[in-house]
Amino acid sequence: MNRFRRLLRFDTARNRQSMPSAIQRTVRSFRTTCLSAIRTMAPTLFALSIAGVAHAQGTMDFSGATTLMTTFKTFAIYAGAVICFGGLIFAGIRMMSGRFQDAIPGLFGALFGAGVLGWGAGWIGSLTGQTMQ
User: Using CA atoms, how far apart are residues 3 and 37, in angstroms rounded to an integer?
Assistant: First the structure.
């Protein structure tokens, strides 16, 4: 008798799933489509939300730029002089000891220092477009 009650089970539905399989497939398909759309649109929405913040920035004040560039110009002059003088000392010591081939890098260092000394102000002035005296 117990065997027949298990087969028929009138108290519960035969299909124990809460939804029929066609509805489940539709819901899964809808979820997949929504997640795909969210993944596709998320970078664009993020960029658009930051674009509003970027427009809210204030203006920059360049009133102290001339003073700053003058400081950089002075540094370029001093750095060029130190490089040039150091290269000449290095080359001179090597030449006095008779190793003329070892003195060539020192001479190129002195040449580079002279370039920094001569063109440093022009390079720095080109950064802002200002002319410096």
Answer: 52
> What pLDDT band is residue 106 in, cutting at 50, 70 and 90?
confident
pLDDT tens for 71-84 read: 888 888 888 888 88
CB atoms within 10 A of CB 124: 20
Question: Rounded to an integer, what distance in angstroms lies between the CA atom of residue 58 and that of residue 48?
Answer: 19
End-to-end CA distance of the chain: 112
What letter would DSSP give residue 61? P
119 in Cβ contact with 76 (< 8 Å): no
- Distance, in Å, from the CA atom of 31 to the CA atom of 111, rounded to the nearest integer, reads 70
